[in-house]
Amino acid sequence: MQMKDKFGIKLGMWLFLYTEIMLFGALFLLYAAYYKKYTANFAESAQELNLVFGTVNTVILITSSFTVAASITAIHNKARKLAIALLATSSTLGIIFLINKYFEWSHKIHAGIYLNSDILTNGPFGSNIFFSLYYLITGLHGLHVFIGIMLLIVCGIMVAQKRIVPGNYVFLENVGLYWHLVDLIWIFVFPLFYLVI
Description:
Blueprint: H1 3-37, H2 39-46, H3 51-76, H4 80-110, H5 118-121, H6 125-160, H7 170-194
């Protein structure tokens, strides 16, 4: 692949990531506006969330970001088997993240805390807003994690088939950038919902 093509592909990826930042940035601004108005309700609602789940998921995503970066280094160093193992580890960590989120959501739904539930509609308006934003933002983030897992699996297959090799791993780098963005977004999501004071 020529340098000009690589530059174009990387530029396209950065522009895509910019749109993702704008999307989540807008949601974070919406959160901030409602937080200012309903601070007490947000702080009270945050107590319903499980800090352990949030913390474990944070550690999982930070670790997976490291293993993705290490897989790129492994390809660069011609360690194909190591790169495959690292990508498999990253995918597995992403799946564990989603499983944790599934259990967390299930617990909330079982407790009657879901959109348009009696608890939320008859409770304080700020709590309704908090959980609406919680489900929207964490659900959208979860979708991005799922897409990232699929891309990491594709990268692993391409490395195994020797379609991603030293000197030609732009696709893996771009997937790595996407995964790092997904992790970075969670770094903002975690304190907004789990550490509200």
